[in-house]
Amino acid sequence: MEPLISMGVLALIGAAATIAGASEDLESDVGSQSNANSQIQLAPQMGYIHRYYNKAIAGEPVSNGMMCTIGATGTLVLIKHFGMSPLFALVIGALIAAMVHGSYSVTAIMGREASQKRFKQPIYLDLIRSHTPVIMAFAFLTTFTVEIVSYLMVYALAHPFPFVLLSFLLGVVVGSVGSATGDVHLGSERQFQQTEFGSGLNASNSGNIVRKGESGLRNGIDNLWFCSKFGGPMTGVAFGMVVFLGIWILIVFDPARGLKEGWLSNILGFLIVVVLGIWNWHIEKEAREKFGPYKEDKTEEVSA
Amino acid sequence: MSDAKNKYPPNTMLALGVVGGLVGIYLAYFLAPINHVFVFFGALGAICASVWGADVVRRVASYGLGTGVPSIGMLALGMGVIATLFGLSIGGVAGPIIAFITACVIGAIIGILANKIIGMGIPIMERATTEIAGAGTLLILGFSIVIAGSLDYVLVVKDVIATGFIMMIYIAGGMAMLHPFNSNLGPDEMQDRSLSLAIEKAGIAMVLSGFASVAGLGAIAVTMLIGIFIWYKGFNKYYSFVKRDAYKVLDTGMLPTEEEMQ
Amino acid sequence: MIELITANLIWILAIVIGGTLISQSVHFIPVGGAPAAMSQATGIGTGTVMLAAGAGIAGIIAAGTVMAVNQNLPLVIAAGAVGSMVMLAATMIVATWIYVYGVGVIPVSAKVKYDPITKYRQDLYVSQGTEGHGIPTVCFVSATIGAALGGLGGALVYYALMKVSTLPVTDLNLSAVVSTFTIGFFFINSVIPSYNIGGTIEGFHDPKFKKWPKAALASFIASIFCAIVAVVAVGSLGGGL
Predict the structure, then answer these.
(1) Does the pLDDT at position C173 exceed 50?
(2) Do residues B254 and A211 make contact, with C-beta atoms less than 8 angstroms apart?
(3) Residue B139 belongs to what domain range?
């Protein structure tokens, strides 16, 4: 394909991927899925009853992989068997995925809290009624944008993998990225906001999550508001970078044009990794200097 | 887990899964050339296999795998996909049986490796990985025949693999096996509640594979309708168990007071 | 069936090597699991299987793209490695932003006193009651190595299976079957080492890393059976048995 047109397609893919990352993280923040969920699961055991949505669906990569695959299945069936235009099929496919995800979410919270009977954790039906549509809306967004990315990769950039398979793969990747980045903001910061800023979770504080918010009892939608300020957009940037940079190096130096171009694209990718590594080291160094140590160095004092 | 919570013994579930699965697949296999509507038997067989698989996941995960429940689901379906394609490529009437046996062999090998070489030390590991690989294969075969209308290798490659629907079967079926236990994780988990959820999730997978079927509008309609019915009944059963088991199901409310927590 | 196996012995070996590389890659990638997301442990806050799968999948996507246009073996597997590395590097840099600016912790490991690469002191900067947090430089480097191995392994499996068949590389049925196999194969070889690790690992400096031979052996044996099965199924696509 003409390189400049490829760059245009890539720009669209990058934008869609950024939205996908952000909505994936926000969806997992409303339902406190995956990593942060371990504290939600632990809290009733330690006597801290909560009003959070305990959505435990097998971890974000698998759950997002499922949504995106189901969405892509719906889309492909509508395009191939029912002759619908892709513009409509992508939307309806994402809608089907959101509905399936809604059913998984509802059964998850009911199941987890029913299995915590001995800790006296009630199931609040109003939580299910208010949070599930929000979860479904974000699931719709994630599925829709991931479908756009994989649709463009297959039908515009001629990727050899099938459309549904590529959607599955990108769903797993967006789940991995979201789980590694945005969940930290929820799990370390928002969930334990009552502890002082600037430290990790002390093991003695495990399970002692914030349950009483600014006014009233805190729930998943309050967490969503907070995490949408930082965690969500950052996850969007992360997934956008993953997809954009991964494809960019192959468009700038197209392996189809020969072996030399192919190796130049590999070298460019490796350079990007090195630059990011140096940036990571720089942030680490700066943080050590600015924040300082937590403890005094006792051995130095003794020998002095 | 106390025995009082386990109403259905492991061998009953194994029989349900193997017999139900194979009968469903072969009914669809032999009846589909007569009228494509009969492919739905394959989905029913797949539902039996997923309930069996969910029970195996339940049993083995309670030993503490160290990596979480989803990984064993992904392992099972990974083995299932490989074994299914192998069995179907050999072809013929015995294709499904060859796929099933291959999966069980690979599952047994991986279980032995996990216990003996990695040293996991879980007593039922070999049996569990064998069973779960078999369940995964029957599930994939059942839904594949719904989508492709037959188990001919060339047709399955064209309609199930090349379109990518195999991944939908992989993940929707895998989730039907691992979501029931994962979502009911907790000290008061009950077998009948978890398995009713397996039926509900497998019902969703049936609706999706019916939707993707190329076996004609009749097959699509019949499979989807039966799938929606199974989903509905499964969900109602699950909700009734949730109400039975939960501490309280409140419409809304504040956190319990100190006195209530005593 | 036997002819297919004997004719493709070199590709079966390639698949087995690929599977073992995938299994080794999982030991390099620093995974903190749920505690890492709570800044209680060093590493990336995801499960072992899924992070390795995420990185490897990015590599397989890249390898698939390149193989469709250029079938040079070193190029394809290098593209797989680079794809995985870019994915993990981008994820880690954003995770560092969140740890340092969002949570306010310093990237440190609690398993070593001095970072093997930067020689920075670690234990004074670990917050109380935690096992370290964030992604210090040694973990970043270890992750990059792990991603490279995973991408290499996945791309090697993909390449080998594509070459087994007599069908042209651009045949979409072939790439669909091969990519499906590669994914299933990848998941199997990610779960086996994750059982070996048993939860979390910080990278090559972690004492748990010494357990890698067990996973290598287990993956090697499991991959042999899966490779034979895969080669028969893929080889039967074009010409028949």
Answers:
(1) yes
(2) no
(3) 2-261
